[in-house]
Known about the structure:
By secondary structure, the protein is of the alpha/beta class. The chain folds into five domains: about 5-65; about 80-175, CATH 2.40.50.960; about 185-440, no CATH class; about 450-485, no CATH class; about 490-750, Metallo-beta-lactamase, Chain A (4-Layer Sandwich). Helix content is about 50%, strand content about 15%. Strands 16-15-13-11-10-9-23-24 form an eight-stranded mixed sheet. Strand 2 and strand 3 (about 95-100) form a beta hairpin. The two termini are about 50 Å apart.
Amino acid sequence: MNRGLYLYPAISVLSGTLLALQFHWGAVVLALLLVSLFLRKMTFTILFLCFVFLFISFLNTTIQEKRQKTVLTSEPQPADLQIVINDIPVIDGNSFVTLARIKKEKVLIRYYFSSEEEKRKFQYVKPGFVCKVKGQLTEPKPNKNPNLFHYKNYLAHRGVYWVLGVNVFEKCADESTWKHTLINLRFNGLKKIEREFPSSTAGVTQALLFGETGLIAEDTMKAFRELGVVHLLAISGLHVGLVFAVLYYCLLRIGVTKESVTWIGIVFLLCYIVLTGASPSVMRASSMLIVILLSRKVASKLSTIDSLSIVFVMLVLYDPFAVFNVGFQLSFMVSFSLVVSSAVILNTSSSIAQLVKVTVVAQLSSLPIILYHFYEFSLLGFLTNLLYVPLFSFIVLPMTIIVYILSVEWLILFHKHLLDGIQWVSTFIASFPFSTIVMGKPPFLLLVGYLIAIYIVFVGFEKRKYMLSGLLLIFWASTHMLINTYNPYGEIVFVDVGQGDATLIKLPYNRGTYLIDTGGEVPFSKEEWEERKSRFSVGEDIVVPFLKSKGITSIDTLILTHGDLDHIGGSEAVLREMKVKEVLISPNSDEKGEMKKIMKIAGQKKVPVKEAWYPYSWAGDKDGLHIVSPQDEKYEGNNDSIVLYGEIGSLRWLFTGDLEEQGENEFIRNFDLPIDVLKVGHHGSNTSTTEEFLIDTKPSVAVISAGETNRFGHPHPEVVERLKRRGITIYSTGENGAISYRFWDKKGTFSAHLP
């Protein structure tokens, strides 16, 4: 069979899988397949083979999707259960998280240690342990904001439908068998690194050797991501190839026959997949090598593109949901692009020129996937990859392997200085302004356009039309940015930040972007052993990613209604990641501790901070947004929240912060302003939204920003009943997730992220 013919069955499998899971993407892939088959004038045999693979993959995916169901049920009270630890536990601060099996079904285990001594005991719990526990099964929480990571779907694609919150671990016993040998070798390897390597380099060492990134400092991960080299902190095809080449060479040197080396290599690669955590890139590279080695056994030398295609077919038929994994997408997209472009890459004898071409192809082919999942890409990625790839391939990785094997103190110290230096330089370079460019999440048609544009670019490269190809991609990227920036639609979004407030107002044609509050979490005092390395932050994990997904990099005004943490806690991340032109605060609210910290960051960023009270003139006045409270400069907490009245998208809005009864009474004494939409004060507390206030303002829609099952009982049942009695439509972020109002001219529509 001719070189590359296996590619068509691979595309057919992708099309059939996506037709079953996401029809619109399946249709796009099918259209590309049909066009390609027509242009290449394929024989009837190839056409028939493609149809067979498409049908098989569609049927296989449909069957597997129907099998995605649970046999477990949730009980109203904690129950006694027996679990079998199935994966290496992650211990971070006072938390213990792992995958386990209950009645042969995978569940996610969460447990919180009660003491430091208990935490020490759990360091030795590993796969194969059987434990008796008391706990309660709950369903994973769905994603409640547009565009953000969908954790429930992620778990479902791994066959996990329940989270077991464990109250008590009664006893555990090591009942591991030969099946757990490899994963426990991985466990012991990770523990060895934790014991023997300095804390500043243990995380990177674990990532390079075992594909485990949990201990890498957040600053390092962020810097590598912004430089476009985060892939070097994962086990890649390069790692697999290097390790296999060393093994192959050493075995031949000691006199092992080529026949035996082949079989030893295949066994090693299968073991290596488990030892390194079975990431998509390792699965792809190891499986490719195995396919190539086996093909030589049957005297049928496969080309690289055919080997890659066969591996793709095998992995997708085994696990159709792998196509949603970003690592899987990047691994195969970049690999296919490099193989297809190999003629262009290899037509020069200069190693440097080849490295430049490889970097260009890898960067371009990964662009649509990076934008879809992360909304931004690194402007420095091309240069940093040229430097970092050889550095990690020929110095860092080999040295890490040697240091791990020898475990000599002076070598570990030298290794520490090398990695510390790389991390420091990376953080420094990533701090440069404009190191990344935020594009926003491309909608479906734009994403299809990116794929077509990049295909045309590669064709242009083959014909040496570099300038024309580059201009096409720049044109399409500019179109993407223009659509985001000068969108004729405006939007008001009440972001779900749990028990807090964060509201985005984005006006049509980029006339203004305002953010009212940023959410935040109230910290509780903890002992040192309880502190987590990976901390959840509303600002970093919800507000900033949401803004970036909308293509927002600049905020005209950040309004912090008052000094409570659940309204301002995310401001630090917003000020660090966004260009904020000004900050408005309630008079004298900066006397509170957290607000002082935010003011300091604003000062470092040279962002002007202004105190605002009625009647205060500000940038929002031109857009129909007016400050109507507080009425004086004395700060007394909730009732001195900045309150905004606005006429936007043909509706009249009132954004009340945490305004309570006293503030509401003052408002209705001073203003006669009927409204259409009320952002309910103080998360629906019974101290706000009085009957008199509702009678005076006459809202038809009420939006409540409160956390699901929060400890304060917000919204209060009496407030909800009060709103219902008046026939007011109620939206709550706790129940509905993010609430959006999208408008154009004088027409608009409300929508809830969760139905």
